[in-house]
Specification:
- 59% of the residues lie in helices and 0% in strands.
- By secondary structure, it is mainly alpha-helical.
- It has 3 domains: 125 residues, Serine Threonine Protein Phosphatase 5, Tetratricopeptide repeat (Alpha Horseshoe); 142 residues, Ankyrin repeat-containing domain (Serine Threonine Protein Phosphatase 5, Tetratricopeptide repeat); 191 residues.
- The longest helix has 37 residues.
- The N and C termini lie far apart (94 Å).
- The relative contact order is 0.06.
- The N terminus and C terminus are likely disordered.
- It comes from Thlaspi arvense.
- Keywords: ANK repeat, Membrane, Transmembrane, Transmembrane helix.
- It holds the Pfam family PGG.
- This is PGG domain-containing protein.
Length: 506
């Protein structure tokens, strides 16, 4: 059982220890030495501190034997004796982690009494004190978020980033605390930090009642906070009462025709498939294409971080290198086909066309193109979800369209003799020419569509984890959709030139 004592009882314990010493000990013991130490801490008298240490060298060490006690550092922190506190921190760092009988550390007392110079001194010596939990499991970060000390808040975040994950006894983060206490500027500081360190999943954490920070903002009608959070959190998350933030906000409003409004809202949810699901329902679903890819690469689909092991990284890199080599070889083969190109224009061919016969050229371009496109597909499949993957994706799509355009330029004209001699082969070639743009479009966009679908399915899961965060799913796909349409149009325009400009007639 933990003992709860103050500084006056430390002297009693020290006296008992002194009585158990050997009779040969020559160290004098003064029962009032701890009272004098307390007075020195109140006055900030460093000289008197060292005189007391000279009388009793273990005077500071006895505090380590107590679970809860008021140390000289607590007294100095409460009185604002900064230099004395720094001296004690240097002599006995463990005193900074002690809680007094009220459940407060020296750091908490310095903050409560607004001795910010001392607080910064504590942080400079030991930044982990920002995460020390006092009464109610409240940390110094929670305190500055509650009172709105934005300068200290930002300094704490830089000094101890992990403190943002600390929870109070009510399972509240610093974001919850700032929102509940109406500290808008402190909330913006926290939100700005969270966005810069890619920790948006913290915003979806729930307190003991299942409320996120968005629920808290709705309960006190903080519309500005709700607008800021609405872009980065799950707006459909429900608390333990089964209510979303919008439901809580509507309690403070009186909408016209509430029954009709609720009916239309439910219909909209079903059409847009934006309703949330729980973690259990998500785990019963089959693995998506992206999850099967992650499993193949040895990645965890439910990992809280994006870290990869060395073995996983080696497997990923090896596949990527091989795919890049195949893309390079097939691209070069497409630009320099066997036999070369005609150098002049005649009735049978144009300058710049392949010297191959028509059906041989079809076989060559078909096989070489399939190898090229499948390798591009593998590259896209491996990079999707990585930083700047959309830029690389757009580049590979543009490369495929450029390769197709070069094929249309160098493709030889068919001769009527070959068509009449091999009618079935001619029909197969025509079908291939018509279907190939569809194959290209599917290969280029299947992975992208699968990735977007997987991220949206994950976002619907009402569970506070990084793998279910809104960060990846929130990016609007409009630009990517526009780029995709351009690629599709480019594929068909380029490829139909083969059919119409080459005068291919079946």
């Amino acid at each position: 059982m933990s003992m709860v004592v103050d500084i006056n009882r430390v002297s009693d314990m020290a006296a008992q220890d002194a009585n158990r010493r050997k009779s040969s000990s020559t160290i004098p013991q003064d029962d009032n030495i701890y009272e004098r130490l307390k007075k020195a801490a109140q006055d900030g008298d460093i000289e008197r501190l060292y005189k007391l240490i000279a009388e009793e060298p273990n005077i500071l060490g006895n505090f380590d034997k107590m679970h809860f006690c008021e140390t000289p550092l607590h007294i100095a922190a409460e009185e604002g004796q900064t230099q004395f506190a720094m001296e004690l921190m240097n002599l006995k760092p463990s005193l900074a982690s002690k809680l007094n009988v009220s459940g407060f550390s020296p750091m908490h007392l310095a903050l409560q009494n607004k001795h910010f110079r001392m607080v910064r001194g504590f942080v400079a010596i030991d930044s982990s004190l920002i995460s020390i939990k006092g009464r109610g499991m409240i940390t110094p970060l929670h305190h500055v978020a509650r009172v709105g000390e934005t300068e200290l808040l930002s300094e704490f975040l830089f000094a101890c980033p992990s403190s943002l994950n600390d929870l109070t006894v009510k399972c509240e983060t610093a974001v919850h605390v700032a929102v509940k206490n109406g500290q808008l500027k402190a909330f913006k500081v926290l939100l700005g930090w969270i966005k810069r360190v890619n920790k948006e999943a913290i915003l979806d954490l729930k307190d003991e009642d299942g409320n996120t920070a968005l629920h808290n903002a709705a309960s006190i009608n903080q519309t500005e906070v709700m607008k800021l959070l609405g872009k980065v959190v799950k707006v459909k998350a429900k608390n333990l009462d089964g209510k979303t933030a919008k439901d809580i906000l509507q309690i403070h409003q009186s909408p016209c025709f509430p029954e009709a409004r609720n009916f239309l809202h439910s219909v909209k949810e079903k059409i847009l498939c934006r309703s949330t699901t729980n973690l259990g329902n998500y785990l019963t679903q089959k693995l998506s294409l992206i999850e099967r890819r992650n499993k193949f690469l040895g990645l965890s689909n439910l990992s809280m971080t994006g870290d990869m092991s060395l073995q996983t990284s080696n497997r990923h890199d090896a596949i990527l290198v091989v795919a890049i080599l195949i893309v390079t070889a097939t691209y070069q083969a497409g630009l320099s086909p066997p036999g070369g190109f005609w150098q002049e224009t005649t009735d049978d061919h144009d300058a710049g066309q392949m010297t191959m016969k028509f059906f041989n050229a079809v076989h060559f371009i078909f096989l070489n193109g399939i190898a090229f496109l499948l390798s591009l597909f593998v590259i896209i499949f491996l990079i999707v979800g990585l930083p700047m993957w959309k830029l690389v994706y757009g580049s590979t799509a543009a490369l495929s369209v450029g390769m197709l355009a070069s094929y249309t330029t160098i493709f030889p004209d068919p001769s009527y003799t070959e068509i009449e001699k091999h009618p079935f082969r001619s029909i197969s070639t025509a079908i291939f020419l018509l279907v190939s743009p569809v194959i290209i479009v599917i290969l280029m966009f299947a992975t992208y569509i699968a990735f977007i679908a997987d991220k949206r399915r994950r976002h619907r899961v009402d569970f506070p984890a990084a793998c279910f965060s809104l960060r990846d799913a929130s990016s609007h796909p409009y630009l990517s959709l526009l780029a995709g349409i351009c690629v599709i149009v480019g594929v068909y325009v380029s490829w139909f030139k083969v059919i119409f400009e080459k005068d291919l007639k079946i």
